[in-house]
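job 3f2a | input accepted
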Amino acid sequence: MPHPDPSLPDAQPDYRTIFDLTADAICVYDQATGEILDTNRANCELHGYTIDEIRERGITGMSAPREPYTAERAAEYVRRAAAGEPQRYEWATVTRSGEEIVWDTLLMPTSLQGRPVLVTVARDIRALKASEAALRRANEELERRVAERTAEAEAANAALRGKLAELEGAREQLIQRTRELEGVFRTLPDLYFRLNADGTILEHRGGREAGLSDEAYRAFGQRIQDALFPALDDYFRERHPVGEVTCIEAARATAEGERDYEARLLPLADGTAIAIVRDITARKRAERVLQEREERFRALIENAHDITCILDLDGVMTYQSPSLRRLLGWDPEEVIGKSAWEFIHPEDVDAVITAIREVVETPGLARSAEYRFRHRDGSWRMLEAIGRTLSVDSPEQGVVSNVRDVTERWQAEEALQAAIQEAEAAREASERANHEKSEFLSRMSHELRTPMNSILGFAQILAELELAPEDHRAVNHILSAGEHLLKLINEVLDIARIESGRHQLSLEPVQVGGVVREAIDLVRPLAQSRGIRIADSVGPAGKRYVRADRQRLAQVLLNLLSNAIKYNRPAGSVRITCDEGEDGRLRVLVADDGTGIPTDRREQLFTPFARLGAEQSAVEGTGLGLALSRRLIEAMGGELYLERSGDQGSVFCAALAPAEDPLASAALPEPAADPAPGEAVRPPATLLYVEDNLANLSLIERVLLSRPEWRLLPALQGKLGIELAREHAPDLILLDLHLPDLSGEEVLRELRADPRTAAIPVVVVSADATAKTVERLRASGAEAYLTKPLNVKQFVATIESALAGPAVRP
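job 3f2a | predicted structure (810 res):
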């Protein structure tokens, strides 16, 4: 039992009981010396020291050894309080076991028996601090916090029961101190009642923060359950053992709204009871907020499509949301408490363990993993989990994961991968077949052309000799048959090259009319020999250009005209016209007056070696012409098709994409003449050449010797070229594509993106002559694209054109 300062007179036992019953720590100090005169049981028990030990240690020895809990700070609070100014502050002390307690401390001056003293009333606010921290971490540790709260409440109740039992023995001593401590109790935040057996209020103290002090005064002499707290009515209907603490929560309407209170009741041996009432509104509100959040989060989790799973660090499942039943067939109760490794595919366990280890090593950061999980029906389902630690501060609490069933996606990806592999295998097989076919055709070409060379060579020699008429006719038959066979060999090889992708085309703007006239001139002797009239009706459209290979386009037109002549009626006509189709392509149409193509044979029209019955006629042919022509037109990006056919003849159409007039796009200014006396000289210009090849650089320097007004600025790297362009703002930039640090394409993009260089014309000078590269660089903003080896005249003309202003780019 604590021993009060003998210098203080004894008070009434009831006051000593209240003094030691108080849950807050109370200390009385000598105002002059700062010596601890007395303290209550709560202070001793919370610190684990006797009152004598507390007196010996003093406030300095009890305080936490860190800022701001210093002797100087304590002295300042004492000085202000002694001056008549009550002080309220937080202070931390250390218990015998080394535990730190944070207090909400009220320091105020008063006097006992005429002796000036200081009284501290300190409330342990560790629970409040923990509650505030718990609110900040509510989303992460709701369930743990509620469990801790429950444990704390039970521990507090148990501690209170023990304290009340201990304090009962000190009741008489506390009564003796009633009057001296009356001033102290007026400052206490809780409301203290002394009640008789039926709840009638005999006396009350405190209540400064409980908000009921005035009402308690008015309720003096009334039953507490009638005047203040109806919830206590049941308590006073029963008898309770002496010393047994009962805690009852009650709500009460006030002017500020409904507030929550906690009443702790302790029956005494004399038949009365002590009631301590505390305002717990803030705590209850916090608990309600936590409960609402928990219910909301639980509803979200339990109604989510995905599974929410919690594992401890050993892989044991401690929680599974109800979605587990719908997605994997298991009831959560069947798997909770079991190791996840029992359900995860053995081949995936190591990967999942690694993912969990990474999550624990980086708290707060999410990690994902895919693994197979056994369905209740025995099948395997592919799951995708995204997990993180339950708590950033305490990763050992486990890992929470959001789990989604991605089996269908996984199966689709597997099927896609299998299809890709199958397609890749088919492509490789096709490439091998094409390669083998090309090798075969190459060998066949050699094997066929070698004997054909001898046959046609000797036949031509024989044709020059004087032979008998019959021998001469035989030689002519040999020549005709040999040339026919040679043409067949060439057409077969052409088709094979196109199908294997080895046929090289040189696509350029080609004027339609010129190619048409060239083809007509070539077939005119054949038409005249058969009495067929050819009508050239291409008109103004013949002056337009298409994008094609000139030689191959002529070959296609020659084939169409030859067929139109050979399959025409006697004294018929062939008409060739040109127009623009609805899709914008330029069409060349060849019409004849033949008997037409049977409807049931038209599907075979462009099939190799299909002559559609003409093999029964006297017309020579291989059946390869139309098949080869269609493939050539398609290789040039066009289309060859039968427009119409009937008793009045057939019309074939070749449609190709239009192209710009190359003469217009290549229009160059006249070469500048030497300035006459008194005439202004040519304007100077600075040319920046970005090129890492010194030989190419020397060539351009040599070319530009004829134009002294042009100053050449070299740059051997892309980045250096960009910097020089920004610094010198040249009139023109010559740019190579293959540079040691950046590609020319990247340099062009940076130049066009910078407002300082965006308007400078750039001429690309490169050995890369592929059409895709040229088109891509033009689209990126190149003024012109010149291929190596350079045409010097074209090069100079291009520079002159670019310096003169906007022009069509080569």
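job 3f2a | The two ends are 108 Å apart (CA to CA).
job 3f2a | closed
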